[in-house]
Amino acid sequence: MTTGHDRSVLAKALARAKEFARLRDAGSDDFTKALMEEGVDVNDLGEIAGALEAVAPPADLKGRLFASTSGGRLARFTEQVALLLDLDEASAGDLLERIDDASSWSPSPLPMVELFHLEGGSVVDNAITGFVRIDRDGGFPHHEHIGHEYALVVQGGMHDVTANRTYRPGDVVHMAPGTGHELTVAPGPRLIYLTVAFEGVSIAGMVIGPNDAAM
Question: Is residue 37 situated within a structural domain?
Fold first, then answer.
């Protein structure tokens, strides 16, 4: 699935599939950087993986799969969180475990919205990073994206009012620079999602950047 995303970007990534495979197998952080620089939608990674021409899986794959099924209720999102935040999987798993800890959350200036502030790796230095939790019947007001934004839903349903589309746990929503939308919570549990918003967002004309005290 490609969302708000030019297919030519995926074509470029597919053309570089062998390079991505080499970097991945070497355990290089440049693998993540290359993906981000191409503006690749994480939902397209399945297509990229299919183009890697029978590259052998990492030696620790069995252990990683076991860990993802033996962890907490959100452990299945560990690999996606690690990729989006430029972290190792142990650190990503710890962040997911902390979602159910009430002390992880802080109120935001927006009604019915709470924030779990966190820091990622060097790839996301220039991005707003954190988990967002929105109560039932709540929402996130219309905002515009200054840079690329990636949002991973880990609980509940995210309804994009502007696009009239609902995203569920495991979906990664990519929004290109200059795009905007309003979000509401779909029927069901509270919405929780990870956001990685490069260069920040603009809400009602107010620009909120990385490390901005306003959020």
Answer: yes
